[in-house]
Amino acid sequence: MNRITRNISIVLRSERLIAQRHLAVLRRQTGLMAAAGIAGGVGLIMLNASAYLALSQSMSQPVAALIVALVNLGLAALLISLAGKSNADAETAPVAEVRDMALEDLEAELRVAATEAKEATDALKKMAHDPLGALAPGLAGTVVKAVMKNMKS
Predict the structure, then answer these.
(1) Domain spans of the chain?
(2) Cα angle 42-48-54, degrees, rounded to a multiple of 5
(3) CA separation (Å) from 5 to 13, 103, 106?
(4) pLDDT on residue 145
C-alpha cells in the first residue's frame, strides 16, 4: 500500500510541475507579446510617420502608404512567430516520463491487489461450501507432526 500512495504522490507532483511549466511559458509569451506590442506601437508610429513623409516626396502618397503598411504587417508577423516559438514540452518531458512510470507501477500494484482480493474471496467461498475441507490440510499437518513427535519419544 505504501508504493501505491507514493506513486499517487509522484503522479500528482508531476502533473503540478507540468502545469507550472506550461503557465510559466504562457506568462513569458504574454509578457513578450505585451512588450512587443507597446514598443512596436510607439516605434511604429514614429517610423510610419517618417517613412511616409520620406516616401511621399519621391512617389505618390497612396503608394508610400501601401509600402509603410506592408512593412508593418511583416513586422507583426515576425513578432508573432517569435512569441510562438516558446514551448514547454521539451522542458516537461522528463517529468512526464516519471509520471508515466509511476502510473505503470501503480497499475501493477492495483493488479496484484485485485488478484489477492480475488484469491481471498475464492478461499472464503471454498470455506463456506466445505468448511472441513478447508481446515483439513492444516489439521493433517498438525496431526502428522504430533504423531512423529510421539514416535521419536
Answers:
(1) 2-152
(2) 140
(3) 12, 11, 9
(4) 76
